[in-house]
TrEMBL record:
SUPFAM superfamilies: Multidrug resistance efflux transporter EmrE. One of its GO terms (cellular component) is membrane. Putative transporter. Residues 23-294 form the Sugar phosphate transporter domain. It comes from Cyprinus carpio. This is Solute carrier family 35 member E3. Its main location: membrane. Keywords: Membrane, Transmembrane, Transmembrane helix. Belongs to the TPT transporter family. SLC35E subfamily. The keyword Iron-sulfur does not apply.
Length: 313
């Protein structure tokens, strides 16, 4: 009975974490796109604000004894902090340059890239069925991008860089939590200010500080409220990413994330009037079919693994 209650509590915590990530991830896409389209707020500065608000949120959590910080050597997390910067900056640039549909579908490619990284560098094995499901996923993304009437070459470069850095980042998050024996909050608590420092040095070289479009420019009160709200939601996104990857796996996080893109795509067409051609629709359906097949095979393999464990004497 105690075991069942423990399993139920554990599952409910995972479900709650997935729900927080679902809502915050969808909201952050729409709010950031709105900020870019209607206010033209600079991308790297917005990312810096996200990092600072994330650190302040974790500082408050630490003061409320929600978690206990653990001393970490900066050299152990410097690559993670740099990849965190690239992950957020490139995905935001992709969102800024592409339609929401292309942006969202490009992110789906994170799963194949993670599988390649884990296979080549971490010697992790995946079944043939799992590998084959990546074919319709990849084909669907290519179809959507090719037939996007708002195709943007620079946007696709940003999307490609975002996928590569995001994949590295998510694999490293899980590996570092295991290596350093820290939880999601402890790791992010030290990583967020380091990432903020990196961006603080870079922002003056790439974005104006004053005048039109600068961080200290003449922004309206509503624009500042939206930026602050974006920062708070980014804190929830970052925290839930760490928590989900730490308690499940990078691939599980990404496969869950693929289901979010359906709602995000619909919102993009409704809120920003993004066009959708027939071939793009076929690409989306192709990607969804690959996602569903992957999920089915993955769950079947997990159940098979559990049954083998229970049958052992």
């Amino acid at each position: 009975m105690a075991t069942r209650l423990s399993d139920l509590f554990g599952n409910s915590r995972i479900i709650a974490g997935l729900l927080v990530n679902l809502l915050s991830s969808i909201c952050i896409v729409f709010i950031n796109k709105w900020i870019y389209v209607h206010y033209g707020f600079p991308n790297m500065t917005l990312t810096l604000i996200h990092f600072v608000v994330t650190w302040l949120g974790l500082f408050m959590c630490q003061k409320m004894d929600i978690f206990a910080p653990k001393s970490l050597r900066p050299s152990k997390i410097i690559l993670l902090a740099l990849s965190f910067c690239g992950f957020v900056v490139f995905t935001n640039l992709s969102l800024q340059s592409n339609t929401i549909g292309t942006y969202q579908l490009a992110k789906v490619m994170t799963t194949p890239v993670i599988i390649v990284i884990q296979t080549m560098y971490y010697r992790k094995t995946f079944s043939t069925k799992i590998k084959l499901t990546l074919v319709p996923i990849t084909l669907g993304v290519i179809l959507n991008s090719y037939y996007d009437v708002k195709f943007n070459l620079l946007g696709m470069i940003f999307a490609t860089l975002g996928v590569f850095v995001t994949s590295l980042y998510q694999v490293w998050v899980g590996a570092k939590q295991h290596e350093l024996q820290v939880n999601s909050m402890q790791l992010l608590y030290y990583q967020a200010p380091m990432s903020s420092a990196f961006l603080l040095v870079l922002v003056p070289f790439f974005e104006p500080l004053t005048g039109e479009g600068g961080i200290f420019g003449p922004w309206s009160f509503l624009a500042l409220v939206m930026v602050l709200m974006s920062g708070v939601i980014a804190f929830l996104v970052n925290l839930s990413i760490y928590w989900i990857i730490g308690n499940t796996s990078p691939v599980t996080y990404n496969m869950f994330g693929h289901f979010k893109f359906c709602i995000t795509l619909l919102g993009g067409y409704v809120l920003f009037q993004d066009p959708l051609s027939l071939n793009q629709g076929l690409g989306i359906l192709c990607t969804i079919s690959g996602i569903l097949a992957y999920t089915h095979f993955k769950l079947a393999e997990q159940e098979e693994g559990k049954s083998r464990l229970t049958q052992r004497p």
